[in-house]
Amino acid sequence: MGHTIAVSGKGGTGKTTFAALIIRLLKMEKAGSILAIDADPNSNLGEALGIRHVSTIVDIIDGISKNPAQIPKGISKDRFIDLKIQESLDEEEGFDILSMGRPEGPGCYCFANNMLRGLIEKLMNNYDYVVIDNEAGMEHLSRRLVRKINTLYIISDSSIIGVRSAARISKLVDELDIEVKERSLVLNKSKGTAQTLEAETEKSGLLVETVLPHDLEIENVAIKSGSIFDLDTKNPVMNKVKELVSQHLHAGNTK
């Protein structure tokens, strides 16, 4: 089974950018086969990776529901959807990507979520690394897309509210009995140090692995809807993420 990296955090903390940076670094290092999973209905991971159109699970389900005549005789609807989703995997240079998409209603979301969960379980054995950009907030955790995570990065901005939100996410992971080997709190977009949040981070019970500075280059890429691959290789945030991820991957490979 591949090494599963999940990225979580409340909206606006930069979790999608962080997930995209991990994918870029794994690709640059030629670490192995990579599956990127955009489990956020906003579906921004593909755009951050420079992909303008990514087929989504919700689109496939909607298309089949609107035109059930396309289902071949002798095959169930669920099986046909599963096959079409596997066919829809976008194969990019250096990684594949699978996207949830935005649902039209709660029923569609539950079905799409179940399909994605089953597909992840099947695909995890086919890739060396699986990187999941989760939905902002905590609701996605209760759906338990994956039950075993090698490394969980919880992203927070450098605010007390952000750290408290990260602590709630970590607590929910424990309550849902999701197996996590390593978890880290990453303070993002910082204009200072973690010292001002020291008391709050101690109460959170999370280890602050790194503090990522506010970065104008990354901000400009986001404003222009650019790709994370447009960043300079010497970008300070990218290099900090590289150090962090390399440390966890090395630890995971030596256990």
Secondary structure blueprint with pairings:
Layout: E1 3-9, H1 15-28, E2 34-38, H2 45-48, H3 57-66, H4 77-87, E3 90-92, E4 95-99, H5 106-123, E5 129-133, H6 139-142, E6 148-157, H7 160-175, E7 179-190, H8 198-204, E8 208-213, H9 216-223, H10 236-253
Notes on the structure:
The chain is α/β, with parallel strands linked by helices and 255 residues long. Helix content is 43%, strand content 21%. The chain has one domain (3-253): 3-Layer(aba) Sandwich (Rossmann fold). It has ten helices and eight strands. The longest helix has 18 residues, at 106-123. The two termini are 14 Å apart.
Please give a quick description of this structure.
With 255 residues, the protein is of the alpha/beta class.
Total number of distinct structural domains: 1
Straight-line N-to-C gap: 14 Å
List low-confidence stretches: none
Strand-residue proportion:
15-25%
Name of the top-level CATH class: Alpha Beta
Rg, Cα atoms, Å: 18 Å
Report the order of strands and helices.
Answer: EHEHHHEEHEHEHEHEHH
CATH topology: Rossmann fold
Query: Which descriptor suits the 3D outline?
Result: globular
Share of helical residues: 40-55%
The average pLDDT value, as a whole number, equals 84
Which structural class should the secondary elements be placed in?
alpha/beta
Number of helices: 10
